[in-house]
Amino acid sequence: MMNLPHLSFLRSFEAAARRLSFTSAAEELNCTQSAVSNHVRSLEEFIGRPLFVRHPRSLSLTDVGAAYLPSVRHALQEIDQATQSLTLQSHKREVVISCPVSLAESWLPPVIQGFRVQHPDIDLTLHGTVWTDVQDAVSDISITICHRDDVPADRQSLWDERLTIVCATDYRVKGARLERCQQLADADLIHVLGRPAYWDLVLAQLGITGLDLNCGQRSNVTNLSLALACQGLGCVALPRSLVIPYLERGLLREPFEITVASPWGYYISPPGKAATPSVKLFHAWLLQTAEQVAC
User: Fold this and answer.
1) Do domains 7-90 and 162-261 have the same CATH topology?
2) Is the four-CA dihedral 245, 248, 251, 256 of positive or negative sign?
3) Which CATH class is domain 7-90?
4) Is 136 helix (H, G, I), strand (E, B) or coil?
């Protein structure tokens, strides 16, 4: 590695050259006049050329000092700017979260509301995702949907997910209120594209076979499937964590109780090594709130 002068030598030289005074430079750098003088002398010895002409009561730059000063000043400014940027980043009170739209529209808003009540000075930015996460390094905290066989080693489950069936409060099958699983044979089934296993697992648990699963309303977005169900267009099998807000608002109901473990669940990334205190605080809040979800 190239042998370079000590940074304090360069700072003392730049301050003294700007003020043309060792005493004024010492006041600016919060050190003694002799320290600045020794730093400059050490730098001159390192370079092998004088940088200042020492007058009885003042200083002036030599030609070498005048030529050297702009480069030193620029380098110090670059160092200061880079350091300030890192310092501000480490103390930035902002958190960027990426989360599947299905969960972002149901569970996450009240979680954020509760966090903001206690930490109103921390700004939150939310990226909604569909099927895939946003690009790396965009979010501080990432929540993803993972199949239980494909969960990355560093991901933590938010809760044990189970499936349920929901329909509109007044949904009927052949004129009768949907209340028995046997009625599914004549019910309108709503499907989530990419998740045929939801109905497969639910029907297998109920012991129902022979249904034509190629018919019915379809959507590639979970919340659109829920919207279809709210309009009375059929019933849908989904993770219970997503339907809880609809149940609490009286928009949907569970016609009968089932207990089917979902092969897909929601997983959260750990805070990175360079995570700010704000990121760590919100990550802990998410995990604490997730413990209260009763699927």
Assistant:
1) no
2) positive
3) mainly alpha
4) coil
Label residue 1 by pLDDT band (50, 70, 90): very low
Q: How far is it, in rounded angstroms, from Cα 254 to Cα 165? A: 6
For the record, the structure tokens of 92 come out as: 């930035």
How would you classify the pairing of strands 172-173 and 176-177?
antiparallel
For residues 162-168, average pLDDT: 96
What is the Cα–Cα distance from 252 to 6, expressed in whole angstroms? Answer: 70
Q: d(Cα 295, Cα 289) in Å, to the nearest integer?
A: 13
Beta bridge partners of 123: 94
Place of tokens 């569909």: 130
Task: Give, in words, the CATH class of 95-159+265-290.
Answer: alpha beta
Overall CATH class of domain 162-261: alpha beta
pLDDT band at 136 (very low <50, low <70, confident <90, very high): low
13-25 pLDDT, tens per residue? Answer: 999 999 999 999 9
Give the per-residue pLDDT at 215: 85
| Domain boundaries along the sequence of the chain | 7-90, 95-159+265-290, 162-261
pLDDT tens profile 111-134? 999 999 999 989 999 988 876 655
Torsion angle, CA of 72/75/79/81, rounded to 10 degrees?
110
The model's confidence at residue 88, banded by pLDDT at 50, 70 and 90, is low
